[in-house]
Amino acid sequence: MSTAFLSSDDRRSNFVWSIGLAGSVPLWIAAVLMWSHADPVSAGRAVAIAIAYAAVVLAFLGGSRWGSAIAIPSRPLFYRERAMSIVPGLAGLAALFLPPAIALTLLVSMFLWQALWDVTSAEDGRLPYWSGMVRATLTAISVPALLAMLGRVLFAA
Fold first, then answer.
1. Helix (H, G, I), strand (E, B), or coil: what is residue 1?
2. Which of 1, 7, 42, 51 has the smallest C-beta neighbourhood within 10 Å, fewest atoms?
3. C-alpha distances in angstroms, 25 versus 3, 21, 98, 134, 143?
4. Which residues contact 86 (CB under 8 A, 6 or more apart)?
5. Domain segments of the chain as ranges
6. Which residue stretches of 8-128 are H helix?
7. CA atoms of 72 and 39, how far apart (whole Å)
């Protein structure tokens, strides 16, 4: 579809959705690879790469929240939001050093926590309203991939 007749808001929305959906693809590729390979080495590599990728995504989400907090420094929740914005990245970093089952559980928990925070912030007007719907949808797409990997890790044990 040509974007020539779309408003700038529509083009931005399409871009955000496209990038967000593309961002979930690596997690699903890793989940499929884990379930399709009986070879434990290949499955181990897939989960390690997925954990690292999910950690990077969490750091990005936390950085986005940091940016939204400093955009309006007079907000009443400025300090709390800045402090909370580092939690996803730190959790992602911790996941890199944990056994896969614990790491995946931590990542699922953090993706859900981030989604809850983003959705409630969008509803409260601290984030653009559309961002809550985007975060909820992308979390609903990405978390099942992490859960599929967790199931494979637990099933293989």
1. coil
2. 1
3. 24, 7, 23, 16, 12
4. 62, 66
5. 23-59+78-156
6. 8-36, 40-71, 78-85, 87-95, 100-124
7. 51
